Structure formats: C-alpha cells, structure tokens
Amino acid sequence: MSQTPKRGLGRGFESLISADFDKTLLTPEDRIEKIAVDALQPSPYQPRRHFDDTALQELASSLKRHGVVQPLVVTPVKNGKYTLIAGERRWRAAQIAKLKTVPAVVRSSKELEQLEIALIENVQRVDLNPLEQAISIERLREQFSLTYEDIAKRLGKATSTVSNIVRLLQLPESAKQALMEGKISEGHARVILSLKGDAVRQEYLVKTIISQGWSVRQAEQFASSVKAGIKESKQAAKQTQNETPAT
User: Fold this and answer.
1) For residue 89, which of 61, 51, 32, 58 has the smallest C-alpha distance?
2) Is 88 annotated in the active site?
3) In this structure, what DSSP letter does residue 184 have?
4) Among residues 29, 33, 58, 88, which one is catalytic?
5) Fewer CB atoms inside 10 A, N or C side of the chain?
6) CB contact set of 59 (below 8 Å; sequence gap of 6+)
7) What are the tens digits of pLDDT across the range 160-219?
C-alpha cells in the first residue's frame, strides 16, 4: 500500500480512496458476472449523497462507447437483489446510459467481514505514513458504513485521535505530497491545517518548511503571526525568524 498513494496524489484523494479500494476488493481469480442494472441497489448506509451531474453524464457517454471496464463489487440480498459495495457512481452512470447489465463481482458478507478486518489490521501497522492511515480509516468509514467512533473502538484509540488522523486528508495537495515523502512531519501538517481557508499561506508555509528546514515550533510561530493579523507571508516569516531562539 505504501507506494500507491504517491502515484495517485495528482488525481485527488477522494478518487484515490475509491479506486484503490476497488483494487483491494478484486483479485485476478474473481469470476465476473453480468448483473441486471435494475437488480442493483445502493447501500442504505452509503455516506456519500451527492454525485456531480455533469461528471455522471460524461461517464455515461464513456460507458456507451466503451462499456463498464472496471467491475462493480456487490453483495447479495433478498429477492435476487444486490447491494453495491463499490461502484455506485458507475451504476448511476450505467442507468443514464440505459445499459441493461453491468459486470460485477459478488462478495459474500463473510468475505467483506474478512476484508474489513484486514483493513483494520492495516491501519495498525507501525510503518504506515499518517496519511496512509487516514486513507485506510476513510475506506472503512465509506465502504463499511462505520463511524469514526466504531473505528476508534476497533483500533483501541480515542475517537478524537482517529478524527484528527482523518483531518490530514483536508491538507492541500502539496502538503499531502510532502507528508507522504517525509519532507514534513505530522506536526508540521497539523500546523498547515490550522491555516485552512488561506490557501496562499498554506502553500507558502509548506515551501518554507521544506526550503528552510523549519521546526514545528517555527511553523506554529508563523501560523500565530498570520492569525494575529500580519498580512504579508514574508513579514510573518521574518517575525518567526526573529522570535526563534538561536540554537
């Protein structure tokens, strides 16, 4: 898992999480079935409620030309119906495209439970980057309808700890990249998050931490200067340097 996020950063983490999760659900040995579009239903616990109409129309046009390339993942329910585990966006686009069937892999509830356990174990790995932990936690929340409180209990962590880890997904792309590559620490990342809503200052802080080797304390001083009303980033940086004791 450690290498995949680095390749996908440019696409944004929402797409990374869903696409990477699909790969986890599928194996080369899986038997792909054709399932009627009207036999599928979304999960009632799916936290995502908004789907961009324009993006769905574009995907529907692609499906008309090329078909559904990546199989959906479903689990059987009553009366010949299936609940979607992964691929709701593709299913909605298939409806728009008026496709009769879509390719899908059927997963039993036991298989999904095993996968859930595997993902929880993955979050507990000591060698995971904080951002990789955040991605795995968000997979659990989105795909298994678990709350952060549920996940925290299973991980043996405080709910606030889990929520704070997931907040790292709100970092600007440059900060995510730097955190994944070890150029900034989790402490630096949290200071950058404290400037959320000020994209210019966030970018400036990321670059300065890397180029000048700022400590977390220096980053905090910069953020404090910004919040105190210093408008120019360079002026806030100068104030930071002036307040930093010599070592």
Assistant:
1) 51
2) yes
3) S
4) 88
5) C
6) 89, 90, 93
7) 999 999 999 999 999 999 998 889 999 999 999 999 989 999 999 999 999 999 999 999
Burial of residue 215, with CB atoms counted within 10 A of its CB: 0-12 exposed, 13-18 middle, 19 or more buried: middle
- pLDDT per residue over 137-156, tens digit each? 887 787 677 889 988 988 88
Q: What does the block give as tokens for 234?
A: 């360079």
The position carrying tokens 């000591």 is 126
| Long-range contacts at 145-154 (CB < 8 A, ≥ 24 apart) | 145/43, 145/45, 145/46, 145/47, 151/120, 151/123, 154/120
Q: How far is CA 215 from its chain centroid?
A: 27
Which of 140, 146, 144, 147 lies closest to 124, judged by CA?
140
Report how far residue 219's alpha carbon sits from residue 215's, in angstroms, rounded to the nearest whole number: 6
Q: Is 139 helix (H, G, I), strand (E, B) or coil?
A: helix
The b-or-e profile of 23-35 (16+ CB within 10 A means b, else e) is ebbbeeeeeeeeb
Amino acid at 74: V
pLDDT band at 9 (very low <50, low <70, confident <90, very high): very low
What's the pTM?
0.56
- Cα–Cα distance for residue pair 8/18, rounded to 1 Å: 11
Structure-token pair, residue 128: 């995971």
- Which amino acid would we find at residue 98? K
